[in-house]
Amino acid sequence: MRVKKIGIVSLSSGVLGEDFVAHEVKIGIERLNEYGIEVEFLPNSKKGIEFIKNSPEARAKDLIKAFKDDSIDMILCAIGGDDTYRLLPYLFENNELEKIAKQKIFLGFSDTTMNHFMLNKVGIKTFYGQAFLPDICELSNEMLPYSEHFFEELINNGRIKEIYPSDVWYNEREDFSEKSIGISMEEHQNRGFELLRGNAKFEGQILGGCLETIFDIFDTPRYEDTVYLCQKYSLFPSLNEWENKILLLETSEERPKPELFRKMILKLQEYGIFDVISGLIIGKPQNEEYYNEYKQILLDEIKNQDLSIVYNINVGHSTPRCIIPFGVDAKVDVEKQIIEFKE
Predict the structure, then answer these.
(1) CA angle, corner 113, sides to 131 and 95, nearest 5?
(2) Which of 193, 228, 306, 308 would bridge with 279, disulfide CB 3.0–4.6 Å?
(3) pLDDT score recorded for residue 1
(4) Is the pLDDT confidence value at 343 over 80?
């Protein structure tokens, strides 16, 4: 399936509509047009930070409209944020999402983890790992080659066949102004997928996302109603539903301190998830900050000694990024340094 039209949504932060990203948006539209792709910004997606923050119902309407519109082949999230959980009542109170849900490509990461869980609830297979502003609008002269490879595979084939480690990783950009157009990021040699424990080969369907966003479902200082709403609409799958799945976890640009990382892993340990999944895959920490500390915490706190844990996947908040399909059978093979996906 070749993607002909992309609908861009702001389901979390409304930064897409602010003047200070206009130069990035222009780059992104031009790149998508070069692929022969028509771009539609859903009606509320460019209304700015304040409107989007105060209007979760408008965000939900955009997502529903994008699913209803048969001309849109792919729904692409503008960026992450921190409150997309607020869409829950507008998507689930009267089964609004279930009524219109159909299989089409949905791509986003970070706070969009919540939307992946929402779509998982209604049986939609989604794709995790890239978004419009961070990836398509990359300020270098071209998209980063590793990120571009997976994005092109997705728009040309509607699927991802396999992922493998990137040869390099980049220091995150600190300046996103027009002055940075055409300026490359500092790159470093990457190490491959690291097996921390367990079998080098395992399989299952992958689900998961940003660790801090997942932690918000259980416990959060951010918003007082997050835990309540996520529980009310049973957003996080039950232990039965997690059986034999592979959990993906990656950490955000906030680069959580080891104490917080430990607290978040312990919360999942307490839930019992590490006793039922078939394997755990962990994204590379941004800028490799706390790289070894996180590894040690995983080994210290996950009590299931038989659980396969694979570290240093190039996905989520560490640049560059692959794309991981959720809800399709995956085979992890650390010896071959690949994760393969079946149709």
Answers:
(1) 110
(2) 308
(3) 81
(4) no
Residue span of the structural domain in which 238 resides: 168-341
Q: How many domains does the chain have?
A: 2
The answer to whether residues 159 and 176 belong to one domain is no
Q: Are residues 142 and 179 in the same domain?
A: no
- Crossing angle for the helix pair 291-301 and 258-271, to the nearest 10 degrees: 30
125-159, pLDDT tens digit by residue?
A: 999 999 999 999 999 999 999 999 999 999 999 99
Largest CA distance in the chain: 51
- Amino acid, single-letter form, for residue 46: K
Please check the confidence at residue 208 and state whether its pLDDT lies above 90. Answer: yes
Over residues 203-225, mean pLDDT: 96
Q: Which of 119, 145, 163 finishes a domain?
A: 163
Single pTM value for the model? 0.98
